[in-house]
Amino acid sequence: MKFKLGCTLNYNVESLSTFVFNIRVVETDCQKILTEQLIIDPDIRIDEYVTPIVENRYFRVNVPGGTNLNIFYQATVEMNHFYGDANTIAEVQPADLPVETFHYLYPSRYCESDRLHQLALSEFGELTTGYSRVTAICNWIYEKVIYEYGTSNPHTSAFDTATERIGVCRDFAHLAIAYCRALNIPARCVAGYAYGLNPPDFHACFEAYLGGRWYLFDATRLAPQNGIVRIGTGRDASDVAFATIFGDILLNKMDIFMEHIPEGNSSEVPELTTEAISIS
Amino acid sequence: MKFKLGCTLNYNVESLSTFVFNIRVVETDCQKILTEQLIIDPDIRIDEYVTPIVENRYFRVNVPGGTNLNIFYQATVEMNHFYGDANTIAEVQPADLPVETFHYLYPSRYCESDRLHQLALSEFGELTTGYSRVTAICNWIYEKVIYEYGTSNPHTSAFDTATERIGVCRDFAHLAIAYCRALNIPARCVAGYAYGLNPPDFHACFEAYLGGRWYLFDATRLAPQNGIVRIGTGRDASDVAFATIFGDILLNKMDIFMEHIPEGNSSEVPELTTEAISIS
Amino acid sequence: MKFKLGCTLNYNVESLSTFVFNIRVVETDCQKILTEQLIIDPDIRIDEYVTPIVENRYFRVNVPGGTNLNIFYQATVEMNHFYGDANTIAEVQPADLPVETFHYLYPSRYCESDRLHQLALSEFGELTTGYSRVTAICNWIYEKVIYEYGTSNPHTSAFDTATERIGVCRDFAHLAIAYCRALNIPARCVAGYAYGLNPPDFHACFEAYLGGRWYLFDATRLAPQNGIVRIGTGRDASDVAFATIFGDILLNKMDIFMEHIPEGNSSEVPELTTEAISIS
Amino acid sequence: MKFKLGCTLNYNVESLSTFVFNIRVVETDCQKILTEQLIIDPDIRIDEYVTPIVENRYFRVNVPGGTNLNIFYQATVEMNHFYGDANTIAEVQPADLPVETFHYLYPSRYCESDRLHQLALSEFGELTTGYSRVTAICNWIYEKVIYEYGTSNPHTSAFDTATERIGVCRDFAHLAIAYCRALNIPARCVAGYAYGLNPPDFHACFEAYLGGRWYLFDATRLAPQNGIVRIGTGRDASDVAFATIFGDILLNKMDIFMEHIPEGNSSEVPELTTEAISIS
């Protein structure tokens, strides 16, 4: 399945400011970049940083005051989704987890799995383990948490959302991640482009490590799982903000776009599914 | 039903200290003091304060340094419980609530009903209203929250317990109160002597205002509801601590005792019940 | 000093709703109501509730759906301020406090004095006790906390503000109250009309119990202390909201007004002052 | 300067359990391992994991039930401290920071720099920037936060400590880290062996990125900075726990030891210093 996606970001920069952007998609075994274009206007040198292992592609731009900064990013991406059999995907015990996944068991700023331990046990501890347990977590959140813009803020964490029961995509992801970690399932935050999101926006969902690989989940049901293209992964949203900005700026415009590129020989289309999908 | 109850408290007082005790039982339409004895050794003058409306009976003692302070309190109390029909007790709408009960709808230190609003709605919003809804809240807490000494602390609040799902009697009461208030049911904290509590201790439970009066509830199921004798009520435990102490002291001993006094002509005995009981 | 003050509140009431208003001023030894007018349009019966001791004057209105509700309140008030000598006003030890003031030492929803104990000791524990210590608390807050609309929300408490250092008048009052209580100084929240507030609004400040009476403090410095007329007092803002509303409504208009009525024979004018003022 | 250090850990393992240990020291430009010994009794295979960049040396052991597990670790380490000139070490602006240090500007579980932003600005925002500002942060914490065992718990975070003003070494480190990040100074948690710590224990302190490298700071003043040997670094204590355990175990014994090995030709001794030291 192929997508054309990207964004335009436009800022007024009042005084010398530093931007760290995280808007370019990564390459994985399942996600291949066919074409890519990044236009920075005015043409300012960028410093790139690719994180070890997960290979997020951050770049920094230092912008003088008085600049109107325009960032245009566009890529065409081919997704070769890995489809697992949801019925047979097991949880991996700590004894067998790849040691590098342990960091995704630890609590993070917005996913206080340590404080959610009893709640996770009480709600999900008795369930059959495996892929279906993470699905149950997603269903629980979908059913019990209200999706509403403007109800949470950048400080809102899973501990808040567990009780306040209202939030947006990052809050849904954070709560799911915290629940997974509390049950000893490694989980991490995914920032991405999401097909069909209305209004278009950057999206946050999550991956859980099950049956030997990272599977994609989205408790919001706002986008088809096979329509999500990864920008980056991290412990939580603090790692994968699309922009971290130091300075005095004004955001004028933020347009995100994403199209499905139909292919003659493929019947796969972006759709909500209960199949187990991995893009890692 | 009659009870003999009381306590012995013994403190070493290192330097001039002020104690505010809240250990004497109140009189209500349902709770009559037959005999009562308060012995303070050494014999220090007390300042009494009876709160308006709910008539908690605080007393203050100022104790010089170097004192071994012994407080002995004993009372025999006759309880004439009001038994309502749980099936017909309705919630009272804000339009009809006595205006003085509104204060028990507001959030308090340990019962952040404002932050628990969505959670309460999500868990109990669809239930049939009335006495049974408060019972459902108690059952929910009993089933989902672990009762274990030493797991919470004096700062623990309903917002914590909603997620941490572990605590002691005051945590159970605070969570229930917060849920009730979030559903517009006035609720308040009850401190009391509780028959059969093992080990003997001061107990915390709660009252909800339903069908025109305050009914007693206890989500811990650790004592029979008709075996609870009220010391005081308040917004939460901050109002009804058995002792508030200013100074440098050491608690040596705290013995609480309570006996049922059998009566020839009564078949009522202290027992766990699903009947609606009021002691107000 | 005389003031004419009041408010107009206008609501669209979509469905049967209950309002509890707290907009009328109280009478105290220092605050006398000369004239008063309350017009409710349409003319709906009110239920009044005057709280014990502090005598807040709540009233409830039950309003049918489809109503445009207009509340007009106006009063002329004569203030006979008690002026104390700030240099000689001492703190009152727990041994000597009137027992009914102890409730204002306990933590409340938005004033978690229990959690602020060490911070209060660290910042103010070494200062000379008395009126000047509460002034020091006010100065600390004025200097370290930024006053900015829209930065806090109804859940924000003193524990948040102690660290986040930004908020509005109720946040300033809550933090000051929490600090006072942590230092064993009874403190309570005051809701009132405030002369010269720009834009006009209901105001929150606080009183501390010192030298045998309640003195008025305002860490915001946004209004002259002798220009504040009390609506009510409570443990914190949860007790003295100007309106508590149950139902589906829309606030159309909220106008608050306050004028100083000059008197020929008085030289007292509303002004910021460092004198110790009591209106209780 | 040379040290001999290590630990003995003894556990009763009730049922099949997984341990991830983080007790071995790392090698850096300043820290060289001369000899090293790890004895696991019974002799169970370990899985090692060295993290990218910072090279923490985690290892996992899966231990059958019924085992008495004994871990003995010992190393001799040569420290070649980098000494900077505290007076000339500047902060590095976001425009010039190595992009891989940005992760240490983001908030983490126990270092909510996002919520401490205003507090950090209020307390340290006006100070001269550079090494001395981080020293000022350490002094502030040393002076205002009480060091006392048993006063904090594993959930305690910088946001709590900022107000509660009491805690242990990890709380001191977390608060300092949060302050640094709030001021745009990258900061990270260091777990290590600390010379002269009494009682001997694993220690937590922190590093701040200044003047182009990571400098070591310890707000507790409980150990000489040049007597600290690094086990690992991470965003906060959640990354560098000495043991993460999945299973039912009992810790019998935990002995940490550390000796200074005098060298004839060196006058450097472990001592509290105000010099700028780096071990990275």
Automatic annotation (TrEMBL), chains A, B, C, D:
<feature type="domain" description="Transglutaminase-like">
    <location>
        <begin position="161"/>
        <end position="221"/>
    </location>
</feature>
<dbReference type="InterPro" id="IPR048930">
    <property type="entry name" value="Bact_transglu_N_2"/>
</dbReference>
<dbReference type="Pfam" id="PF21295">
    <property type="entry name" value="Bact_transglu_N_2"/>
</dbReference>
<dbReference type="GO" id="GO:0008233">
    <property type="term" value="F:peptidase activity"/>
</dbReference>
<protein>
    <submittedName>
        <fullName>Transglutaminase-like enzyme, predicted cysteine protease</fullName>
    </submittedName>
</protein>
<keyword id="KW-0378">Hydrolase</keyword>
<dbReference type="InterPro" id="IPR038765">
    <property type="entry name" value="Papain-like_cys_pep_sf"/>
</dbReference>
<keyword id="KW-0645">Protease</keyword>
<dbReference type="InterPro" id="IPR002931">
    <property type="entry name" value="Transglutaminase-like"/>
</dbReference>
<dbReference type="GO" id="GO:0006508">
    <property type="term" value="P:proteolysis"/>
</dbReference>
<dbReference type="Pfam" id="PF01841">
    <property type="entry name" value="Transglut_core"/>
</dbReference>
